[in-house]
Design a protein that fits this description.
The complex is a heterodimer of chains A (673) and B (847). By secondary structure, chain A is an alpha/beta fold. Among the domains of chain A are: 129 residues, Rossmann fold, CATH 3.40.50; 93 residues, Alpha Horseshoe (Serine Threonine Protein Phosphatase 5, Tetratricopeptide repeat). Helix content of chain A is 48%, strand content 13%. Chain A is globular and about 75 Å long. Chain B is an alpha+beta fold. Chain B has a domain of 81 residues. Chain B has 33 helices and 29 strands. The longest helix of chain B has 23 residues. The N and C termini of chain B lie far apart (130 Å). The chains are: A alpha/beta (673), B alpha+beta (847). At the A-B interface, helix 4, helix 5, helix 7, helix 8 and helix 18 of A face helix 17, helix 19, helix 21, helix 23 and helix 24 of B.
């Protein structure tokens, strides 16, 4: 049982129309860092917060840093710092724990009467909190505080991310709204580049907050760029989705190639850790492998490990582009196909070699060689990676988990699912898996019977430790409310009661679950995960929903042979009733430029033929499966492309871990730089 | 107007190619005191000059001199109008100079510096303790910062004028102060960092924040060091009077010139300044000499001492009677007005003159330059910008307009812009305004810069007219006007009682708001103006103005200083800027007593909830004590408990851990809805206690403390304490199922297969025997797993045998059960032909 998002017969997902050039964002990020570094004269030691290293690695190369005077790089870790350069540049997020380390190191230096010039670069902006803490620690006068405004980082052609791993937890557990503000700033940058979003639709309380911040015109410099005065030509709308609105998707196991890799092996900042043997081919290194080679600077920090980071990107590895959104069960088939083709290419090459007569022919021939080798290497890589994944998908627990998920979605025999979860606990399944299932059960069934829930919670605490009690409390807290008893105790705050998710009703009205229909069965092997992956798409795109409504019976699972012309996005029209049942505010704002007299209707009257891009922003993170689903939706219609923006890539495990405060191995070895 | 051609006032260099002109800007007889008695600092871009009496000079008493005992600074416009006069009551002034935004920076020997604007308001900053103790002996002030030389002969740099902390530059290790020195400002350096040039002995040291380099010159010592306006060359004057020009990297000597040979030069050289980037101006008492790149000279005589201010495109000379601008004649002007010029533009100008005189020569001329006509028009427009007299400006523009008539397509933008610019320039050059900007300077400095300079002189009406004329936003002017208005209206209200005072606030506020609305100053920050009002002690007015401010983030800091705490917090939360919220929170935490601080946040309800959350985030890391109090004061049992648990997790000391868990349990028990949590914490504490007991029993050899129930059981089992494990099971009511799994896993991990066997037979397994098989197989013990297969349900046995790798048994099982379909399925998977054949046999036997 698995999910599929791409029918096999379709051509590889190469966008036929040009998207917005997201590399522009990368260049902006790169330039900002270079400028920040250049503001400090002379050789400098760069001290980096490990959580930033991954994102930074996507923006800038170490050689470039060296070029701009970075002599040595260290991780920002407690303990003394030895530096030989007069300048020390700290680069970190404005988190209290980091600032304390910085303060400690400065104090140590002054005790040892070492003289250095300190610069603290905060990402993405200067914070009062930091200067306050430095003041409390008594070192404020020694540090020059500046900022490095790192915003959206392109992680694929159509995906940009803030790469903030903790966004979900900060918003819904801590109640820290910094992420919203930063997101607003980042979206504002997009607007500065491409013009105002003509329409903003959103769902969820925090989404509404973001939309207000965005439209209220954040305090800007006196010079307002012209782009902020006119509606964008290239973007037709911004859709803001609050992660809280759809908690189900991340709780389910992702089954696309990329999603599954993330679930089982873990993808961090587009990098995956793989055994070295997979990455170092016997022939000279292919382009893909060399780009992933860890830079020399981290070699000193890195223990010798049998594992190595690999950057999963389509730019050097086109095969990955073909594979990433495939259902894992079809990955084998596709790899097979590619292998065959490659073999033929090799054969053709041999024939060609025999026929090569002139020097020009020989040159052509040699030119093709490199391409073949690269392809060969990436085929090897992905075959190896799939081999790693296969045994993990064959375990009892994995399949049991999938089964429970599907039954819960179909609301099938709830009590027996609950006891199945209990069995999983008894068997010693991962805490993350169990908690995901529990939350899923609670959401889909509108809460778990009080007795059963208490029993389950007790089981969890006994099996995994009483220290997870705060996790359970957080999950049940009014702001999150994804693990609740049914009925709710009388003393519950009304907010919590209102936040209950009407899953059963939604499933019916939005046709989230589709029975297998024979013709789709080949490709779309499983409905459930597919559909839930689609749910993101459904919720996110009102236009798509209209289409779904029009094309009545077959819904959207059936890949329609005729590409429908994308409807203009006209707010939530036609879905108001259903939306009203989902907790959280609904937003629909039309932004017209300050100097144009455009009526709201103008945005609807734009020429249909003109290809346009819709930006979808996931506040709180999105999963790879959702990205895959949106790409699928994007391919189903002409004239509209999606640009997915998110605070970070999440999956169920990462969400649970961040709430539980289980430190992921965020040690030096995790950094890409 | 003079019909005399501009070229009549040009002087030609000896090389015969370059012309220089001396343009008289203003005639100022008797307006300035004798400059030789004063220390002077001039502000470029046609800015004012500041004068302070030089106390080293003798002064003839008895004349009507102003009070000479006190240090006084006078500021004059280039047209000789006194702009400001103030006295200095601080320590001895070391140096003063002008900043880019036309403020006078004054540095005294104690390392204190003040920035005066033209209204006499100032900000005061300090160079820090070190400078204060050592004393400052000299300094160089450039547009965007200063470099001070301390008493210990080290160099301190201040970047910008916001009072930033001074940076120590590399130590040049001098034994005595330099003979002379200069700085090259950061924006003129390749490195973008300030560079200091020190003349020490016979050489020059270049110093930046990294290193000090000896440039190994031998001609020194130098009395004057002067970098060119673009920072690429240096002019050095030796004691012997030789003027050297070198590139600023000291690689090339560009020119050498002996000043002693200048006819009429008497006494010592006053100033060495640059005139453009290729000529140097050397001044003596009554003489000013321009030295060209090839040693050519031009002499200008004055009736008394002069002061020269380098401008980007020339040099301004303030003499006793006149204020002059000496500059190289720009190429556009030479090509039109140079006697005998035959360039297209000259012919165009000529044609226009002929046209104006109704002479047919005009047509002929135009025809002759037809191909270059467009360039000629552009040149005429450019040349118009170079002329000081409106008469010539008009003539040149007319010529351009005339030429344009013969062109099919010509972009008129330049023409229009030039017309507008000249109108503005002529207006500000008027002597009452006294800003003698050239066209080039105006372009360099930007129109908005001009506006700020006008507002700084309180010339709001002119500034407003110019901004409207140039279609600039009126915001800057309005803002300045409002501030000035508030300052001026201050005294009027005093003495007439409280009512009048209130009325005054109302009036002023209305006046300002009306004016803003009328002139469309929508983007003016009311907060800044309100702050101004607050600063001068008009709280009422500030509040009123602040109400008009649309941007929350601007209101907050002022609200805080006005002690409008709650309002500030609400506004900060509304703005969505968490940093702003922190700003308010930290500020309030510092200022208010803890109790009222908490009350403020708690009373805010849902409106201030984000602030409360942020406070918790901060306090959790930095100030747990406060957080505990906060939760306690608000009766937040659950949060208190979680905080307590947090501490329990952080501590490693067993006793305090148990105490913390107990504390959490107590908090939970106080909330009637948290019965479950309370029970769990009770269990947790009991577990910890029993773990301590277990550790004691094993003499601390085995770590139990802090494990989960499952792990405790497992550890017991692994270490052969199965009685203990049973006790933990019963104490914590562990369900059989889970216990069996844990025990199965534990025994397998120690390969205690006998124990496992007894365990499996101890009673009927609540989890069946399938898990036994599977787990043993997974752990790599298929042989041991085999014995459990028979105990499983018969339909599953065949598959389980396969998992154990016992294909024959699987075959046998199928045969016994007569399950042919299963057999076939298994056969397809079988690993080798040997077994496959056996299967075939069995299949054949089963009919």
């Amino acid at each position: 049982m698995a999910t599929s998002t791409v029918p096999l017969d379709e051509t590889p997902p190469i966008p036929d129309e040009p998207l917005l050039d997201v590399n522009l964002l990368k260049e902006i990020g790169q330039k900002a860092l270079v400028d920040a570094l250049n503001s400090v004269n002379g050789a400098k030691t760069l001290v980096l917060d490990a959580s930033l290293a991954g994102p930074l690695g996507l923006v800038i190369e170490v050689s470039l840093l060296k070029h701009h005077g970075v002599d040595k790089m260290f991780w920002l870790e407690p303990g003394p710092l030895t530096s030989t350069t007069p300048n020390i540049v700290y680069l970190c997020r404005p988190m209290i724990k980091y600032v304390k380390i910085v303060a400690d190191q400065i104090k140590r230096h002054s005790r040892d009467s070492q003289k250095h010039t300190y610069t603290l670069l905060l990402v993405p902006r200067i914070s009062t909190l930091v200067s306050r803490i430095l003041e409390e620690e008594g070192v404020l006068g020694d540090v020059r505080i500046s900022s490095y405004n790192l915003q959206f980082i392109p992680i694929a052609d159509d995906v940009v991310s803030l790469e903030n791993d903790n966004a979900f937890k900060e918003l819904w557990v801590d109640g820290d709204e910094t992420v919203i503000y930063n997101s607003a700033q980042a979206l504002l940058t997009l607007q500065k580049l491409y013009g105002l979003f003509p329409r903003i639709v959103g769902k969820g309380d925090h989404a509404a907050r973001l939309a207000t911040l965005l439209t209220k015109h954040l305090p800007s410099d006196s010079s307002t760029p012209d782009t902020l005065l006119a509606q964008s030509e290239k973007i037709d709308s911004l859709i803001i989705l609050d992660r809280r609105v759809d908690m189900i998707t991340p709780l389910l196991t992702q089954l696309t190639y990329e999603g599954l890799t993330d679930e089982l092996i873990g993808i961090k900042n587009s990098h995956v850790e793989l055994p070295v043997s997979l990455l170092t081919p016997p022939p000279p290194m292919g382009a893909a492998a060399s780009s992933a080679a860890p830079p020399a600077a981290s070699a000193s920090l890195k223990k010798v490990e049998p594992k190595k980071k690999h950057h999963l990107t389509t730019s050097t590895d086109p095969l990955f582009g073909e594979l990433r959104d495939l259902n894992f069960s079809s990955v084998g088939k596709r790899l097979n196909k590619v292998a065959h083709r490659l073999e033929e290419d090799y054969k053709a090459r041999e024939i060609a070699l025999q026929e090569t007569k002139t020097v020009a022919q020989l040159r052509d021939f040699v030119g093709k060689l490199g391409g073949l080798q690269t392809e060969h290497q990436s085929l090897r890589l992905h075959t190896g990676l799939s081999e790693l994944l296969v045994p993990l998908t064959h375990t009892d627990q994995f399949n049991k988990t999938l089964e429970i998920q599907q039954n819960l979605l179909a609301s099938y025999e709830i009590p027996s699912q609950i006891s199945a979860i209990e069995d999983l606990i008894a068997q010693g399944a991962d805490m993350q898996t169990v908690v995901r299932l529990l939350c899923l059960a609670s959401i889909t069934c509108g809460g778990i019977k009080v007795k059963a829930l208490e029993n389950l919670k007790r089981e969890v605490l006994q099996a995994y430790g009483y220290n997870f009690l705060p996790l359970l409390l957080s999950l049940a807290s009014p702001s999150l409310g994804i693990l609740l008893p049914n009925p709710l105790p009388t003393s519950t705050p009304p907010a919590l009661a209102a936040a209950k998710y009407p899953f059963v009703g939604l499933r019916k009205s939005l046709r989230l679950l589709i029975d297998d229909n024979p013709e789709a069965l080949d490709e779309v092997e499983n409905d459930i995960s597919f559909c839930v992956a689609q749910k993101g798409g459904v919720l996110s795109n009102p236009a798509e929903k209209e289409k779904a409504a029009a094309a009545s019976a077959d819904g959207k699972a059936q890949p329609s042979s005729i590409k429908a012309q994308a409807h203009p996005i006209a707010g939530w029209r036609g879905f108001e009733d259903i939306l009203a049942t989902i907790p959280g505010e609904t937003v629909d704002i039309v932004q017209s430029g300050g100097n144009t007299l455009a009526t709201p209707m103008a945005s609807l009257l734009r020429p249909m033929q003109k290809p346009t891009t819709t930006v979808i922003f996931f506040l709180g993170g999105c999963t790879y499966t959702e990205i895959a689903a949106l790409r699928w939706v994007g391919r189903q219609n002409r004239g509209r492309k999606f640009l997915i923006a998110t605070t970070g890539i999440v999956n169920g495990n990462s969400i649970v871990e961040s709430i539980a405060g289980v430190a992921k191995s965020a040690g030096p070895k995790d950094a890409a730089i | 107007m003079s019909a005399e051609r501009p070229s009549s006032r040009w002087q030609i260099m000896q090389d015969g190619k370059t012309f220089y002109k001396r343009q008289q800007l203003y005639s100022i007889p008797g307006k300035l005191p004798n400059l030789s008695d004063y220390i002077v600092a001039g502000c470029c871009y046609g800015g004012p000059i500041a004068l302070m009496r030089d106390t080293t000079k003798l002064i003839a008493l008895g004349r009507t001199t102003p009070a000479i005992t006190k240090a006084q600074i006078q500021i004059y416009s280039p047209a000789g109008e006194g702009l400001l006069l103030f006295s200095w009551d601080q320590g001895k002034i070391i140096r003063f100079g002008w900043t880019a935004d036309e403020r006078l920076a004054i540095l005294n020997e104690e390392g204190i510096y003040r920035l005066y604007d033209l209204q006499g308001d100032y900000q005061q900053y300090s160079l820090g303790n070190e400078a204060g103790e050592m004393g400052v002996i000299d300094a160089r002030i450039h547009e965007n910062g200063l470099v001070a030389l301390t008493g210990s002969l080290s160099l301190l740099e201040v970047k910008g004028w916001e009072g930033s902390r001074p940076l120590t530059l590399a130590n040049p290790n001098m034994s005595q102060p330099p003979n002379s020195w200069a700085v090259i400002p950061p924006d003129l350096n390749i490195s973008r960092h300030v560079e200091v040039l020190l003349s020490v002995d016979s050489t020059i040291f270049t110093v930046d924040n990294l290193e000090s380099i000896d440039q190994r010159l031998s001609q020194g010592p130098f009395t004057h060091v002067s970098p060119s306006p673009n920072g690429k060359s240096l002019a050095l004057l030796t004691f012997a009077g030789t003027l050297l020009v070198v590139s600023s990297d000291f690689q090339r000597t560009l020119a050498e010139f002996k000043t002693g040979e200048v006819v009429g030069a008497e006494g010592s050289v006053h100033q060495v300044e640059w005139c453009g980037i290729d000529a140097i101006l050397v001044t003596w008492d009554n003489l000013v000499v321009v030295v060209g790149p090839f040693g050519d000279t031009l002499e200008y005589y004055y009736s008394g001492p002069t002061f020269a201010v380098t401008e980007p495109d020339g040099v301004r000379i303030v003499g006793p009677d006149v204020c002059d601008l000496i500059q190289k004649v720009p190429s556009c002007s030479t090509s039109i007005f140079r006697p005998g010029s035959t360039s297209a533009s000259a012919i165009l100008y000529d044609a226009w003159e002929s046209f104006a005189q109704r002479s047919p020569k005009a047509d002929e001329n135009i025809r002759s330059i037809r191909p270059e006509l467009a360039a000629a028009v552009d040149e005429c427009i450019e040349a118009a910008g170079q002329e000081w007299e409106p008469y010539w400006q008009r003539r040149l523009l007319n010529a351009a307009k005339f030429g344009r008539g013969f062109l099919d397509l010509h972009n008129p933008t330049d023409f229009i812009n030039m017309g507008q610019t000249l109108k503005v320039l002529n207006a500000v050059r008027f002597y009452e305004i006294g800003i003698p900007l050239t066209h080039l300077q105006y372009i360099y400095a930007s129109p908005s810069h001009l506006i700020t300079r006008l507002t700084a002189r309180n010339m709001h009406l002119l500034a407003l007219r110019i901004s409207t004329y140039l279609s600039l936003k009126p915001d800057a002017v309005l803002k300045h006007w409002a501030s000035a208005k508030i300052m001026r209206s201050r005294p009027s209200a005093t003495g007439t009682g409280a009512d009048a005072d209130l009325g005054g606030d109302e009036d002023v506020c209305k006046l300002i708001v009306d004016k803003f609305e009328q002139l469309g100053g929508a983007d003016v920050s009311y907060a800044e103006i309100a702050k101004r009002a607050w600063d001068v002690g008009r709280g009422g007015l500030a509040t009123k103005l602040l109400d008009h401010e649309p941007r929350a983030s601007d209101q907050v800091p002022l609200l805080l200083s006005m002690k409008e705490d709650r309002l500030a917090l609400v506004k900060a939360v509304d703005s969505g800027d968490t940093d702003l919220v922190y700003h308010v929170l930290l500020h309030l935490h510092k200022r208010l007593p803890l109790g009222s601080f908490f009350r403020l946040i708690e009373d805010g309800g849902s409106q201030l909830a984000p602030a409360s959350k942020l406070l918790q985030v901060y306090a959790r890391e930095q100030n747990r004590e406060m957080l505990r109090d906060f939760f306690y004061s608000d009766d937040r049992r659950v949060e208190s408990a979680v905080l307590s648990l947090d501490e329990a997790a952080a501590t490693s000391d067993p006793a305090s851990k148990i105490t913390a868990v107990r504390a959490a349990q107590k908090f939970f028990s106080e909330d009637k809805d948290r019965g479950f949590e309370s029970r769990m914490m009770d269990e947790s504490a009991r577990l910890l206690a029993s773990q301590q007991q277990l550790e004691k029993e094993t003499d601390g050899k085995i770590v139990f403390f802090g494990l989960s129930v499952n792990e405790t059981i497992r550890t017991c089992l692994v270490n052969g304490m199965s009685k203990r494990a049973d006790k933990v099971k019963s104490d914590f009511k562990v369900p059989d199922k889970r216990f069996w799994y844990v025990k199965l896993q534990a025994l397998t991990s120690t390969s205690d297969f006998e124990g496992l066997d007894t365990f499996s037979k101890s009673k009927r397994s609540p989890i069946g025997y399938e898990p036994f098989v599977r787990h043993l197989v997974e752990a790599g013990h298929p042989k041991e797993a085999l014995s459990y297969v028979v105990r499983c349900d018969s339909p599953k046995r065949a598959d389980l045998y396969v998992e154990c790798g016992e294909w024959r048994m699987a075959g046998k099982e199928c045969k016994e059960r007569g399950d042919k379909a299963k057999l076939q399925l298994i056969r397809e998977k079988c690993p080798n032909s040997l077994i496959a054949r056996e299967f075939d046999l069995i299949l054949a036997s089963m009919k």
